[in-house]
Amino acid sequence: MNNGIYKHLMTGVSHMLPLVVAGGLCIALSFVFGIQAFKEPGTLAAALMDIGGKAAFALMVPVLAGYIAFSIADRPGLAPGLIGGMLASLGGAGFLGGIVAGFLAGYTAKFLIEKIRLPAEMDALKPVLVVPLLATLFTGLVMIYVVGGPVAAAMSALTTFLASMTTANAVLLGILLGAMQCFDLGGPVNKAAYTFGVGLLASQTYGPMAAIMAAGMVPALGMGVATWLAKSKFTQSEREAGKASFVLGLCFISEGAIPFAARDPMRVIPSTMTGGALAGGLSMFFGCTLMAPHGGLFVLAIPHAVGHVGMYLLSIIAGTIVTGVMYSVLKPSSVDVKEEEATAEGSSAFK
Q1: pTM summary value
Q2: PANTHER family attached here (predicted)?
């Protein structure tokens, strides 16, 4: 059963990964023209941001959910999965909501395929009309009324709580914002922390934004470090994903870690949250400030955008190392790695 669930999850992740990499690198390329250049309509920077942020990243969660459902129920599960994933994305449930939508749609479609009986002359309608329609209705209603409402209420309460914290709790605030930034990697908790930091920029309060961006770089950087520290525990494709993840992390694109988090959430998320909390707490402790709401290390090219640059970099490096080391220790060896090693040993013996 567990192997089946893992296989379905990996199908979704493998189809989502090209979107993460292509979209993230397009966003990073837009920053070459300036951190705010994409806000100018008609420019190449704006086009790159549209391609990466509005197109590739918008498809990321729906494709994850769609292909999880496809793996479970074949073609009848694809439409309900894609639609459930889009509702998760629009409702702010992030990739975690997408995983829920994918499994919900897939197993609902599979159940309907097995239980619905139609006359022989109408049986051809079952995989293209009856099952997709019913599974889509069920999945969509659950995502809207069961998942969407609680997520929205939780986010409102969380934002109110953050606003109530005073500067006397600066380090604690940094730790909390850092952990939130690394919890769901672009999902609602991440967005609540980011929105809180951006909102403070208008009142010339720049410390929380520095903590948020430092922590937001940690997950993707940390996964890249983990694949380098424990190469034997990762497949070749995972090691390649780790390299791409590291590059995206430098650009403050936390989503670079999503393929790893989707594959192994119970180990990846605690690792990223620990490193992110450390980075955020250290940034606030050192009194680092940041005047730009995005850009990753590109902001260092903007004069006076970062206060206490050395300590800011130290915060990021410390968080990255903690995340990378923690996950490299927690992660078990991949089954695929073991199979590759067994194949290699068999080839050597044959020779």
Answers
A1: 0.72
A2: FRUCTOSE-LIKE PERMEASE, FRUCTOSE-LIKE PTS SYSTEM EIIBC COMPONENT-RELATED
